[in-house]
Amino acid sequence: MTPELRRSLGLFDAVVIGLGSMVGAGIFVALGPAADAAGSGAGLLWALGTAAAVAYCNAMASARLAALYPASGGTYVYGRERLGSFWGYLAGWAFVAGKTASCAAMALTVGAYVWPEQAHAVAVAAVVALTAVNYGGVQKSALLTRVIVAFVLAVLACVVTASLGAGGEGLAAPGGDFTTGGVLQASGLLFFAFAGYARIATLGEEVRDPARTIPRAVPLALGLALAVYALVAVAVLAVLGPSALAASPAPLADAVRAADAHRLVPLVTAGAAVAALGSLLSLILGVSRTTLAMARDAYLPTALAAVHPRHRVPHRAELAVGAVVAVVAATADVRGAIGFSSFGVLVYYGIANASAWTLGGRARRLAALGLTGCAALAFALPLGSVLAGSGVVAAGVVAWAISRGRATPPT
Questions:
Q1: What is the pTM of this model?
Q2: In 3-state terms, what secondary structure has residue 4?
Q3: What is the residue extent of each domain of the chain?
Q4: In terms of DSSP H, where are the helices of 241-310?
Q5: Measured at the alpha carbon of residue 294, what is the angle toward residues 409 and 374, in degrees to the nearest 5?
Q6: Across the chain, which distance is largest between two alpha carbons, in Å?
Q7: Are the CB atoms for 197 and 62 separated by under 8 Å?
Q8: CA torsion angle 338 341 346 347 (round to 10)
Q9: Is 258:239 a contact under the CB 8 Å cutoff?
Q10: Domain 11-403 belongs to what topology?
Q11: Which single residue of 24, 175, 183, 291 could bond 279 by disulfide (Cβ 3.0 to 4.6 Å)?
């Protein structure tokens, strides 16, 4: 009999894990590139709303499915059960590939803020440290995430207060016109940040009363993240203007400088590093659980399906994921990783929406909107991200064909 994971997470911890996965990524990584793609302040806000709308559709699909299938693996499990083994496998493949890139981006963000000259070395050290934390048990990870989220929200509150209290170019400052294509591309990049609520669904086997907890935790975490995103985006736009925001590698630090609040710069730098660490912690957690689910069905090496007898965590999957992320973090580029990750995650959620559509009922229209939105955002991303993501998906199809002979999916 396959050992099960320990159910130790309640509603609060599930929301905190999802919120911790979103806040760091969106505020400190994706906001600048998204502003550049959007072309203006109004375009950025439209992109934020579009990304949130698609994320909401995906969240509702994930919540419905997670309540029915409360096992580790998220859309890998849902696709397998609702659409067939191939689609479940493809969702898992896209998730693991895309989120591995996300992990590397978060680790490199830590390095860029803490020690820019040695960013890659710091990134690898962060991956090793947080893999060790996850190895000790999911409840310890949830407690650490709770502390990180509280600190990051306090830092963001300081940024918003300082920015809105100062003069600046304002939201109406010149920043260029925006186009539908630019808004969609910006939305795809911002979606990288909204995707953190998936961590709640992929931890379905470790949540208490999942049929009740997950459908409540997913939209709650998403709504809180959207409120934070909107406040920070408006505040930073108000003090920097869209052009400076698009050009800034560290927009929140530049915003407090422009607001003549130089004493907040070290705090913002620390907040960026801590936020990225929080995202990295939860990302490694989610990728290792999907790896566990795929290994249980022999689509990945079955040795990765082992559960630690004392900590009751998928320790081999966590070590393997940590090793791969460390290698990527030692060689990757942050902005390129964002686009690649977004493509993979949008494929993943496209399959989630297709799975939810099969459930029928009133939610079918929402699932159709989510599927359409995922496709539109994925192919609006920069061409390099689309080509790289399509290549990885194609490689997954080839791997599926090779693995069919030894895979034993449940009936």
A1: 0.82
A2: coil
A3: 11-403
A4: 242-247, 251-258, 265-296
A5: 105
A6: 65
A7: yes
A8: 150
A9: yes
A10: Amino acid/polyamine transporter I (1.20.1740)
A11: 24
